[in-house]
Amino acid sequence: MREPTPNPMPLPIEGPQVDAPDGKSSATPFASAMPPSSTMSRPAIDCRQERGPFDIVGDVHGCADELMTLLARLGHDVRMAYGPSGPHVTVTGTSRRRLVFVGDFVDRGPRSPDVLRIAMALVAHGRALAVPGNHDVKFRRWLEGRQVKISHGLERTVEQMAGEGEPFRSDLRAFVLSLPHHLRLDGDALVVAHAGIEEQMIGDDGGATRSFCLYGDTDGGKDANGLARRYHWAAHYRGTASIVYGHTPVDAVDWVNNTLCIDTGCCFGGRLTALRWPERTLVEVPARAEYAKALRPFGHPPVREKTV
Fold first, then answer.
1. For residue range 44-92, what is the model confidence (pLDDT) as tens digits?
2. Can you tell me the distance from the alpha carbon of 142 to that of 299, in angstroms, rounded to the nearest whole number?
């Protein structure tokens, strides 16, 4: 068995400094990536022309307060106002960096609809790109009226959606459908996928690749807690593109074979983490509370034996 190669030095964690303002508020320096309506279509996987710099945000899982705090530290401030027509998000940050979300916007935390409002506003203003997480896809299936098991935090999102009208629900369905399962960025130096991706899958949009991007390396079995059994796919990765992903909460954010997991379990009382690329520095904010109980300890899953 090949052991994963960790980064020999811990990643530096930045202080609260942000980019210098350019005198603008809600105006965006980027062209809109997609319109904020049901006309959104899935963007291309191939975004190699997007050179950054990027701020890549880990799994949010309904933690809207922590997300807004992290965005402010990164210079991507947003404001949320509540009026007769419902909540409205205004993008006020002046950073010229592009945000990238690794998915899992919903479930477990206290404000999943607001997290989605923030993400949709940032994408609509051209400030952000995103990939979906497995929780987002399951939530979309619920929105479509399909049969899904209401568990693992979805019950909280369903409860929070009780007062939301059909126009918002329609936009949510379209938003999740519009997201590619992985993104090739910075001339192929960087790939973002929710649960990771194997080297030979990069650029492919087939069913096996989509499944891997959402769920990682699994064998269809369950662990002692009834959760899908996962394996540490990054232990076998030898590609030249840096892979940034989430999905599996970890205590320590360390490079393993040119891959980095930035899910630090905010919804479980951990942290919400962003990676600044290409600087490879971290910006983190602590969770305000433990919103859900983790059913397994933080850390990478076991390494799967590879057959020759």
1. 899 999 999 999 999 999 999 999 999 999 999 999 998 887 899 999 9
2. 29
For the stretch 254-270, pLDDT in tens is: 999 999 999 999 999 99
The dihedrals phi and psi of 77, each to the nearest 5 degrees, come to -55, 140
Confidence (pLDDT) at 4: 47
Residue type, 244: V
Is there a domain that residue 3 lies in?
no
Tokens of 177: 């459908």
291 occurs within a structural domain: no
Which amino acid is residue 177, in one-letter code?
L
The span from the CA of 194 to the CA of 213, in Å, is 6
CA separation for the pair 265, 246 (Å, rounded): 10
Domain-located, residue 264: yes
Q: Where are the beta strands (DSSP E) in the chain?
A: 46-47, 54-57, 78-83, 86-91, 98-101, 128-130, 182-185, 190-193, 217-222, 228-231, 242-245, 259-261, 271-277, 281-286
Q: 132: domain CATH number? A: 3.60.21.10
Q: Which domain, by its residues, includes 79?
A: 54-286
Name the domain count of the chain: 1
Please report whether residue 295 resides in a domain: no
